[in-house]
């Protein structure tokens, strides 16, 4: 017995010594096993990056929501007097079916199958995610055992149907590690998914087997890194003007498709971009099989808007004579005959009148003067046939049709050759910007919100000038005459308070199997224009495909409805000087910071500037615009001084000026609506501070449209015929 027990003791002692020396047992590291038993880890969710407009308004962001889970295992109720798991699947299903997108039968089936499979808990898929705080509280009020909620993040598109094919959308997907995160599926959300996606953080700590933090145990926190914020060149107000105008045209004319772009000709920045049909990104309602951004990915035959660049080529080559005449009506190219849109023409007319009337024949004769090869060179100089380089993927390049003489003739008036809407806008910048052609772009900058680092910073890019400044100004004047001339096809595009220059277009639409559609309800109607003519601030392109027109309506009606509304409202919003006021000369903004408020105000107003003073005593603490900035002599300057702040009369203010005042005064102004101020909650002169709430309401200016009788041939420009 002594030897037996002595041997066992020796074996046990040897085992203890072996474990102590090696730190292993049964081939496993004991320290690692202990660490895994007592170490706990919780993930901290990172926010997906925001998409923000040029003024700092949120276009897309993550918002708090809840995910619903049903605990179904009886183990959850062990050692508890109150049930912590689902004890009545039928009642639970009956209640939940009133709040989530699942039937009572579907919920019962899900719960019973999961209970049978001995699962601990079950989720409800898409129906159980993105639950609002209100709905969560309503479900909780029923006190259903086992139904719990976990905080979650939802991708929110607060503007709803808003540049949807540009912005796109993201959907939640389960990753390999079990985490569910939003993943970009379309548009900017897809293109910049990597930049927008953040890195989750985690909390590491040691606890006992019941999950309680061990005494003296330290927490190790790795902070989550939110995704990058993307700042766009898009202006929310101008985009809303565009969306509203397109919605009205859609309802009135029910076209097959529409595309529209608003751009800054001086920089190439895209201020608004939309298309129809479109969809609601929060729900994807209306999303069809067409996921293309038609402004950049879809090609069209542009019709007579291409005549702008034929005219520019002729002027640049020195062969344009506006007073020379030609015989309108028809033009022979070998065995083909080119005809004007009214078939018979207008007899012997000048080239200027021919352009104003949108004569196809005038373009054919003009091509003879320019020369075929020279003309095609100019078309390429204007950027047609190649991508613009806009910061969006899958851009189409279009095709310049120049294989045969007839192709070059039809290209002069926009048939046969294909282009993208964004190419037309880029080419138009050279006309509006004194020959300087600017590359279009939609991404202003990308910023890391965790560090403030600017990851990407886009600057305006000037391309090689296709024409001289002198030519550009001459083209601009002729384009203005298409709106003001008695012969002009662009009469409907005359604005109430601003001058307009541009060109109408009516093009046949190619059939998928070859040939073209024909009929006034089957054309593509468009307008490529700029305003104001004296110093163009906006380029606006609108294209409407196959509108449902009344017998008395012309094709330019839906196009002008959109163009006129968007252009006039946007220019007012941007505080651009109307044509009926004296054109203001720019001045260099002086530095008033540190100088007396009243003296600075008098000095600025003596130069013709309008002033808004925030705090009327002592010295200037802040000014907008900053010193050295160029500003029109009739522009508005904001000066911040010391002392009490008296609220001004906001009536008629644009949203832009209101946002500047809000920023410089730090007053919590709640802005409701778009357009211009119509009312304010506190009267002018009220003394306010940074904790005084002020509500200001804006509304869009009423659209005043001048009824113009249809012009002969305005609605139908005939392509080449045999």
Descriptive account of the structure:
By secondary structure, this protein is an alpha+beta fold. It folds into four domains: 38 residues, no CATH class; 189 residues, Penicillin-binding protein 2a (Domain 2) (Alpha-Beta Complex); 338 residues, DD-peptidase/beta-lactamase superfamily (Beta-lactamase), CATH 3.40.710.10; 114 residues, Trypsin Inhibitor V, Chain A (2-Layer Sandwich). Strands 4, 5, 6, 7, 12, 20 and 21 form a seven-stranded mixed β-sheet that branches. Strands 14-13-25-24-23 form a five-stranded antiparallel β-sheet, sandwiched between helices. A three-stranded antiparallel β-sheet has the order 3-10-11. The N and C termini lie far apart (121 Å). It catalyses: Preferential cleavage: (Ac)2-L-Lys-D-Ala-|-D-Ala. Also transpeptidation of peptidyl-alanyl moieties that are N-acyl substituents of D-alanine. Keywords: Membrane.
């Amino acid at each position: 017995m002594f030897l037996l027990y002595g041997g066992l003791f020796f074996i046990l002692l040897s085992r203890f010594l072996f474990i102590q020396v090696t730190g292993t047992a049964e081939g496993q590291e004991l320290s690692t096993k202990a660490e895994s038993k007592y170490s706990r880890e919780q993930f901290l969710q990172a926010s997906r990056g925001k998409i923000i407009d040029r003024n700092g308004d949120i276009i897309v962001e993550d918002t708090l929501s809840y995910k619903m889970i049903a605990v179904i295992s009886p183990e959850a109720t062990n050692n508890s007097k109150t049930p912590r798991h689902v004890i009545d699947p039928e009642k639970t299903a009956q209640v939940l079916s009133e709040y989530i997108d699942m039937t009572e039968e579907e919920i019962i089936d899900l719960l019973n199958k999961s209970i049978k499979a001995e699962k601990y808990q079950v989720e409800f898929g898409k129906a159980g995610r993105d639950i609002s705080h209100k709905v969560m509280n309503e479900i909780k009020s029923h006190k259903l055992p086992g139904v719990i909620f976990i905080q979650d993040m939802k991708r929110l598109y607060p503007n709803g149907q808003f540049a949807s094919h540009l912005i796109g959308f993201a959907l939640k997907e389960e990753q390999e590690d079990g985490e569910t995160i939003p993943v970009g599926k379309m548009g900017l959300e897809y293109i910049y998914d990597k930049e927008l996606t953040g890195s989750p953080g985690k909390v590491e700590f040691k606890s006992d087997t019941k999950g309680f933090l061990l005494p003296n145990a330290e927490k190790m926190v790795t902070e989550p890194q939110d995704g990058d914020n993307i700042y766009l060149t898009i202006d929310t107000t101008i985009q809303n003007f565009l969306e509203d105008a397109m919605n009205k045209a859609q309802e009135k004319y029910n076209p097959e498709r529409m595309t529209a772009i608003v751009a800054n000709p001086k920089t190439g920045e895209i201020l608004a971009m939309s298309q129809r049909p479109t969809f609601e990104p929060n729900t994807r309602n209306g999303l069809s099989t067409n996921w293309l951004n038609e402004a950049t990915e879809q090609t069209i035959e542009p019709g007579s808007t291409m005549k702008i660049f034929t005219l520019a080529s002729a002027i640049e080559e020195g062969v344009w004579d506006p007073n020379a005449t030609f015989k309108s009506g028809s033009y022979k190219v070998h065995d083909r005959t080119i005809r004007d849109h009214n078939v018979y023409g207008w007899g012997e007319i000048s080239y200027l009148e021919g352009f104003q009337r949108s004569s196809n024949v005038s373009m054919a004769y003009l091509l003879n003067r320019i020369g075929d090869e020279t003309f095609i060179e100019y078309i390429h100089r204007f950027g047609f046939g190649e991508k613009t380089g806009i910061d969006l993927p899958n851009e189409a390049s279009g095709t310049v049709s120049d294989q045969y003489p007839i192709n070059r003739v039809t290209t002069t008036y926009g048939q046969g050759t294909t282009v993208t809407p964004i190419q037309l806008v880029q080419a138009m910048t050279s006309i509006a910007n004194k020959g300087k052609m600017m590359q279009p772009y939609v991404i202003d900058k990308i910023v890391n919100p965790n560090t403030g680092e600017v990851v990407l910073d886009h600057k305006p890019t000037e391309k090689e000038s296709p024409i001289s400044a002198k030519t550009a100004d001459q083209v601009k004047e002729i384009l203005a005459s298409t709106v003001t001339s008695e012969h002009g096809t662009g009469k409907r595009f005359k604005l109430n308070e601003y001058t307009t220059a541009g060109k109408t277009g009516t093009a046949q639409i190619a059939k998928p199997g070859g040939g073209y559609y024909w009929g006034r309800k089957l054309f593509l109607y468009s307008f490529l224009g700029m305003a104001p003519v004296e110093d163009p601030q906006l380029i606006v392109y609108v294209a409407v495909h196959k509108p449902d027109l009344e017998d008395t309506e012309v094709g330019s009606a839906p196009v002008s409805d959109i163009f006129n509304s968007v252009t006039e409202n946007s220019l007012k919003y941007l505080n651009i000087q109307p044509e009926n006021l004296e054109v203001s000369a720019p001045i260099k903004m002086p530095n008033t910071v540190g100088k007396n408020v009243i003296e600075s105000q008098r000095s600025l107003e003596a130069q013709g500037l309008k002033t808004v003073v925030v705090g009327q005593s002592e010295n200037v603490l802040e000014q907008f615009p900053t010193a050295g900035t160029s500003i029109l002599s009739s522009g508005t300057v904001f000066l911040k001084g010391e002392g009490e702040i008296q609220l001004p009369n906001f009536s008629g203010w644009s949203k832009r000026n209101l946002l500047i005042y809000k920023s410089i005064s730090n007053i919590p102004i709640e802005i409701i609506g778009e357009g211009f101020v119509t009312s304010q909650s506190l009267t002018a002169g009220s003394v306010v501070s940074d904790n005084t709430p002020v509500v200001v309401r804006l509304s869009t200016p009423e659209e005043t449209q001048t009824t113009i009788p249809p012009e002969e041939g305005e609605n139908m420009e005939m392509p080449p015929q045999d």
